[in-house]
Amino acid sequence: MSNIHNGSRRLHLQRVFVEDVIKNNGKIVNLGCGEDPAQLQHANITHVDLDTYNHQNFVRADICNLPFEDNEFDLAILGDILEHAPNPVTMLKESSRVAKRVIATVFEEWRLPHDGLNIEWAKENIRKDMTDRGFTNITGWMRSQPTIQSTLIDVDEKTSFDRLPHIWQFTEEILMDIIKQAELDIIIFSKFEEYRDHEDPNQHWNNWLIVLRKCLNPTDTKTT
C-alpha cells in the first residue's frame, strides 16, 4: 500500500489496523470508502459505497443493508462515516454482522449548531452550497469536489442529502449510547486532536478512534 502524504493521524491508525489483518491474510471491508483517503488498496480489501468509485474490489451497496454473509470479514472499517449516517446504530449493527471487529474513526463536528442529529440544518446548507455554486443536481456538485473527482464514476441521486454532509455533532455520551444500542463491546475508545490552527484556536478538529466487537453480554456494554 502506498504512503499517506497529508500526515493524518486518523488515516495512519486505519492503516495500522488494516496492515495487521493483512499480515495474517485476513479479509477487510472498507465501508463508505469514498475516494479512499487512507489509500487502502489491497487484494484482501473490499470497498463499499453508495456511489461508484474506481477502486479495486468495489461493491456498490448501502452500509445498512450489506450483500455479505455473517462474519465474512475479519475487520470492517468505518472511516469518518458515522457522522454522515441518519441511523448510526443500524450502520454499526450491520458492520458488526459482516465482520468480527469494527474500527471507526469518528469526526467531532464542532461547527454544527447543537449536539446530536442536525440533519435538517445540514440539508439546508448543502442545498444552499449547490445553488450558490450553480449546480442543479447532486451529481455535478459531487464531481466538482476536488478530493473525489478523480475516482468518482457514478452518483446515487436517491440518497443525495443523507450521506454527504456531516449531520451529527457527537459527544462521548451520544457515541456510548449508540454503541450500547448496537450491542457491541468496546475494545478501544480514544479521542485525539487531528488538527489545530495555531493562529486561530477555534479552528481545531478532533477524532475518536473506536474499535468494537460483538457483545459477549448484550446487556452490559463496557470498555475492556
Description:
This protein has 224 residues and is an alpha/beta fold. It has one domain: Rossmann fold (3-Layer(aba) Sandwich). The chain is built from 5 helices and 11 strands; from the N terminus they run αβββββαββααββαββ. A 7-stranded mixed sheet has the order 4-2-1-5-6-11-10, sandwiched between helices. It has a two-stranded antiparallel sheet with strand order 3-8. Strands 7-9 form a two-stranded antiparallel sheet. The longest helix has 15 residues. The chain is globular, with a radius of gyration of 17 Å.
Biggest pleated-sheet summary: 7 strands, mixed
CATH superfamily caption: Vaccinia Virus protein VP39
CATH architecture: 3-Layer(aba) Sandwich
Secondary-structure element string: HEEEEEHEEHHEEHEE
Shape: globular
Number of beta strands: 11
Helix content: 25-40%
> Any idea of the CATH topology?
Rossmann fold
The number of helical runs is: 5
The Cα radius of gyration reads: 17 Å
Name of the level-1 CATH class: Alpha Beta
Strands ordered across the widest β-sheet: 4-2-1-5-6-11-10
Structural class: alpha/beta
Uncertain spans, ≥5 residues at pLDDT below 50? 1-5, 220-224
Our count of domains comes out at 1
Strand residue content: 25-35%
* Span of the ends, CA to CA: 31 Å
Mean of all residue-level pLDDT scores: 87
